[in-house]
Amino acid sequence: MKRFFTPIAPILAVILAAVVQGQTRTRIATGLDDITAAKLKADLYFLASDAMQGRMSLEPGDDAAAQWIGSEFAKAGLKPLVGDSFFQPVPLVEYKMDRERTALTVRSKGAAKEFKAPALLGGYPNDGVFQGQVVFAGFGITAPELGYDDYAGIDAKGKIVLVFNHEPQEYDANSVFNGKGNTRYANLRAKMTNAWKHGAAAVLMAPDPNHKPGNERGSLDAGGRGAQFRTPRPVQAIDGDESIPALTVTAEIAAELLASTGKTGSELQSAIDSTLKPQSRALAGIDASLRIATSNRKRGVSQNVVGMIEGSDPTLKAETILVSAHHDHDGTRVDGEIYRGADDNGSGTVGVVSMARALARNPVKPKRSIVLAVFAAEERGLLGAYYYASHPLRPLAGTKAQINFDMIGRDEKDSNQTHGLIDIAADTSNEVNIIGTRYSPDYKSAVVRSNELVGLHLNYKWDDDTILSVLFRSDQYPMLMHDIPAVWWFTGFHPDYHQITDTAEKINYPKMEKIVRLAYATCFDFGDAAAGPKFFPAGAAK
């Protein structure tokens, strides 16, 4: 009779994994069990109630939301980081562009042409005239880790810089620019910051000529149901922010500026895409002046709400794991209806508060310190997160990872945002999107390990998105630009996104409980690991 032997090594591996998982569960059990759907629901019904008036930045409802978060941090026993306060003031300026007085004047061979809205769009909070010679700087990107620099060989100091939207080789699956996906450099703010660092006076961003028709975003959140009632959203900026004007211009204006090169914009882009070598140059005989005029300016102060669970290790407690969300939303419509923002981002806010309570109540603390921050004015342009990145309450050099919650409460559904642009599974009731792990496979591995305790379906599809620019649209992005493994946890768009129908009774609370528990377990993994997750500036190979 033939005898069969069962290999012992795989069995031992399974047993060992179960033991390790059991030990992990025991270590974090008190806090893990404190995160419940019932508590999340109670908090969210309050935060998304009519009393909060839609939590518009610089309005009383949002101030009340910030005060509630601070009081919950205090009750949980978190350590304040702004003296004895949980509130980091974020100075803001609210303004409206004067479209009639704001203009771009282009001068060439003694002739001058003036352009105004709608050919010239965007905002800048400071009145003034910004003028200089015009230089073309390709896509406006400096990415040494990718071997690419549009500013190499040109002098942008005091110049008006013209750049293309998007990135090189956007249709090349093998491109170092994340194949057909976005990298962190495709954002207008990133291009503005890069131009500012090179001494430019202003930036003009034009459509990239070879961008294929039909690859634009779907209906923006200002469209669709109820758009006729929408109160125009205030434009806000960080008061005193180091920046320069960055406005968008039409293809016609770009062609006018590039005519002196003897090449079309399409030819210049094709040369960049085919060789991955910049085609930047001064535009001979072309100078421009940009006149910025604003109206209805007012200053105000919002608050980042920040507290800390101090690490248990005498050495590692100097390092930080950041857990974040944003507390603001869109206020009220002209007819008085309220944008309650239950999912966006009441869900993320109560998720951070729940994490704070769980970490505080767990007898065992992570070795690294955990900073919990709920940022101001995300809907106005990630302003609270940008302010924190410029004025960190703990050194960014020691910040090892960021878990950012933004919309973690719903099931992803086809919507005006996504229709025809991205595939959505038929059933997303147990799914969460994890966005940005291509910059840190270690981060992804930690989430996957912790998910053994929870059992969610993890989806990474948004890392290949270019059309909706999701990578840039939440508060992890400013930290990503500082080489921090910063990842957005997101349950996806749905038809109630930025509508008055985003209400608390539509939240999937059992799934939300699982997401916050997964983040809590992952936070311990980051906090206790021998080293933080490694960051890959160029993005890890797919």
Can you walk me through this structure?
With 542 residues, the protein is of the alpha/beta class. It folds into 2 domains: 36-94 and 296-528, 3-Layer(aba) Sandwich (Aminopeptidase), CATH 3.40.630.10; 99-292, Glucose Oxidase, domain 1. The protein has 11 helices and 20 strands. It has helices at 8-34, 37-47, 60-76, 188-197, 251-258, 265-275, 342-361, 383-390, 441-450, 477-480, 509-528, and strands at 79-80, 87-97, 103-108, 111-115, 120-121, 128-136, 142-143, 148-149, 160-164, 202-206, 235-238, 246-249, 281-292, 294-309, 320-326, 369-375, 399-405, 431-435, 457-459, 486-490. The strands form 3 sheets. Strands 1, 2, 11, 14, 15, 16, 17, 18, 19 and 20 form a 10-stranded mixed β-sheet that branches. A hairpin with a 2-residue loop joins strand 3 and strand 4. Helix 2 packs across helix 7. It starts with 7 loop residues before the first helix and ends in a 14-residue tail after the last helix. Residues 1-5 and 218-226 have low confidence and may be disordered.
